[in-house]
Amino acid sequence: MFPAAALLSFSLVAVVYGQAAGTLTTETHPKLTWQKCAAGGSCTTQSASVVLDSNWRWLHSTSGSTNCYTGNTWDSTLCPDAATCTKNCALDGGDYSGTYGITTSGNALTMKFVTNGPYSTNIGSRVYLMATSDSAYEMFKLKQMEFTFDVDVSNLPCGLNGALYFSQMEADGGKAKYPTNKAGAKYGTGYCDAQCPHDIKFINGEANMVDWKPSDNDKNAGSGKYGTCCNEMDVWEANSMGSAYTPHSCKAQGPTRCSGTDCGDDASGERHSGICDKDGCDFNSYRQGDQTFYGKGMTVDSTKKMTVVTQFLTNDNTTSGTLSEIRRVYVQNGKVIANSKTNIPGMKAYDSITTQFCAEQKVAFGDVDDFAAKGGFGPMSQAMTSGMVLVMSIWDDHAANMLWLDSSYPLDKDSSTPGVARGACPTDSGKPTDVETNSPNASVTYSNIKFGPIGSTYK
Description:
Blueprint: E1 31-37, E2 43-52, E3 59-61, E4 69-70, E5 73-74, H1 82-88, E6 89-91, H2 96-100, E7 102-105, E8 108-112, E9 114-116, E10 121-123, E11 125-129, E12 139-140, E13 145-152, E14 160-167, E15 202-203, E16 206-207, E17 213-214, E18 222-223, E19 227-229, E20 232-238, E21 243-248, E22 256-258, E23 294-295, E24 300-301, E25 306-314, E26 323-332, E27 335-338, E28 352-354, H3 355-365, H4 370-373, H5 377-386, E29 388-396, H6 403-406, H7 432-438, E30 443-453
Parallel strand pairs: 1-30, 23-24
Antiparallel strand pairs: 1-2, 2-11, 3-6, 4-5, 7-8, 8-30, 9-10, 11-29, 12-29, 13-25, 13-30, 14-20, 14-29, 15-16, 17-18, 19-22, 20-21, 25-26, 26-27, 26-28
């Protein structure tokens, strides 16, 4: 992911118990099926569910209904310091459809952008795929495997991102490692990604309220002293106007709390000094020189549902090898569509992400090669060996208006400069105030998830 999504606090009437389970609102995970495939294409349906990220949940006193966090500030009485705040505050179960606009049906998950609930207005959301148990995330070991899903982004305009990706989170959400985390994966705890987000309210089972600064352009978000970093594989970041897939490697393995330079914060000018590659090595067809491949009415038609296939190939074609290539295939209207090819001066005609592709892209675009500096495929390969959590989300961008995905970015460079044009959206599009007002009913639907050996999940 690029900049983190806006997160809301809620003024609901319920009692909850910090990073422990609440008692008034029962946490019931929406059911979602997916398929595990074997070589040859035989697939078995898995009965699973999704869980809402803890950052979206109502947080308030364990002994009453006073909010611990309102708008973008912490309550000074309940939260005079991090340790006391952690002891005093709690998470509750969620009304997935009524509060968050999250619904499931069979193998399909639909996430609505803006939901006007009885007590709050919710913007965006993030969920994780659970294992058969409702207290652990499903862990995907991706090497020499392929991951396939259907997606409908026809209702996602400029400025929105329907993102499906893998994060190197812990299976139990950090519950065993951090005793103050009583809720664990059942309540969506333990998030991390390569942007090392500072807006996560609890990191390592402790309130992230030290040096908390309310956002100056988002009334519902802020940032604390600490960030939470880990390897992140962006399989799909897209709206109806642009799409990309991107590996982001980190020097550290597993969820890592950062502070100072290690976080690589843009505000301090240290983006490339942190432990994670925030830029990543992206394959965006538009940015790679084919402006007719993905979009409305194009080769891959974003006005219609599509199947997205991603293959994680190793150097010796075994699950014990080292990640060496990430390939993409689409299926739409019964037709298999090969990925577009790079058409950029100074680059070969690549159609997948490899070490050579990344190196040539960074030179051609004049970008810092932080992908190589952070170890390239090496750390990501290790993360895929240990297992990664599937994340699905919908969000808008208070940091850069999503221009890095669907428009020309950065704004101080001419759009004709190689690598700047990433999509056809206007450079004045994507402002959260505009998107939230004009497209509240935007949504994304993910469905028909399949996972198995190379060649087993599609025809």
